[in-house]
Amino acid sequence: xxxxxxxxxxxxxxxxxxxxxxxxxxxxxxxxxxxxxxxxxxxxxxxxxxxxxxxxxxxxxxxxxxxxxxxxxxxxxxxxxxxxxxxxxxxxxxxxxxxxxxxxxxxxxxxxxxxxxxxxxxxxxxxxxxxxxxxxxxxxxxxxxxxxxxxxxxxxxxxxxxxxxxxxxxxxxxxxxxxxxxxxxxxxxxxxxxxxxxxxxxxxxxxxxxxxxxxxxxxxxxxxxxxxxxxxxxxxxxxxxxxxxxxxxxxxxxxxxxxxxxxxxxxxxxxxxxxxxxxxxxxxxxxxxxxxxxxxxxxxxxxxxxxxxxxxxxxxxxxxxxxxxxxxxxxxxxxxxxxxxxxxxxxxxxxxxxxxxxxxxxxxxxxxxxxxxxxxxxxxxxxxxxxxxxxxxxxxxxxxxxxxxxxxxxxxxxxxxxxxxxxxxxxxxxxxxxxxxxxxxxxxxxxxxxxxxxxxxxxxxxxxxxxxxxxxxxxxxxxxxxxxxxxxxxx
Length: 491
Prior knowledge:
Blueprint: H1 9-23, H2 47-51, E1 68-74, H3 97-113, E2 115-121, H4 126-138, E3 146-150, H5 154-158, H6 181-187, E4 188-189, E5 192-193, H7 203-206, E6 209-214, H8 215-220, H9 226-231, H10 237-247, E7 263-267, H11 272-278, E8 284-286, E9 292-294, H12 301-312, E10 318-320, E11 333-339, H13 340-346, E12 353-356, E13 370-371, E14 378-381, H14 389-406, H15 408-420, H16 424-435, E15 437-438, H17 441-445, H18 450-456, H19 465-489
Parallel strand pairs: 1-2, 1-3, 7-10, 7-11, 13-15
Antiparallel strand pairs: 3-14, 4-5, 6-11, 6-12, 8-9
Helix pairs in contact: 3-14, 13-15
């Protein structure tokens, strides 16, 4: 990447240290295997205490941008309003902490840099945004300076030269803590960085995988607390399904499991990859040269996936929400496999639930892995039609920095933890979950639409993953080759 500022190593180390304390209060009881223990500590939900910890200001220059208008396309997610990007450029103060922090960030940057930040909401479908953008780029139309498009169709934009290599932007330093290095590394193709993820928005963090459990059902059925299993390193997929199966009941006596009965698990099909990635299964991994390698069928992955599918798709105790709608807040479900966004949604309901990480595949797995849902992550890119790369890079850097400084702490401490988590143990688990975020290249880029196709196996209760991979692997290989040829051609 290019930069007009000198490296500030000491400052960066200080920012990292302070950010780690503020955003992800450390689990001091964590063992070498990554397992949170009994003395797992939690952060205070008091935002006033957080404000006392002052972050050093980074060496980001201030430039008069002479009224430059930055048009940022933000792709939606069909009818799922909570997954929309609401914190990039709100129009007014609403008395809601997250909105107001985002509004103040916008005004502060606009005043400091003499610019205008304009969020352009996308169409009903992320697919429509992709196809429209393709037309604009082919026509040389500089309609957007920055795009935040979802991973679900990102592969479509990589088969042609639509975006710049972000390494060429002035002022951006991906090693700064306000950029998500793990996610950016998972998006690196060869030597090119076409997409990145940072703290422009909290939507990515809201898509972090986790498991919620109903504490009253745990008590009523005399089950051991999932907190204890997590702390002992015994929170595995088999343990989750064993507990789920033990409480499933045909309450209405009609001989079939329906929404009126007691269920062990509820999930949506898109949560399939939460479980797979949490169990250490990755579809694609890049080699040392950044070339994507298919790992879905490597080692014992196929046998792992089939075992997971057989148990997850078992409708005697596990309900795919698209087939059997049993909302978790109805208090007839022991476990919900979901995302952090669910935790904030549950706070309006009066029931007692706890939060734990996604389970390990077995006790031999060293860590609990907190998968971030790649298909929904807004990937930050710059179209090749952008005519003001210098100011664009600077705006992206300051937006992400200011997001980490003033927006993420409010989401994490005040909204996700203090208002939503029901007990201190859940708050400690949230700390642990966010310290172990994981990203997978295959789900972020969705090569060959494999990610979505595998999720859809849940809808038809198809557990034969080996047959699926054998039949479809050639198209996955073909698209990887096509994308990488495009990347290499434009080096």
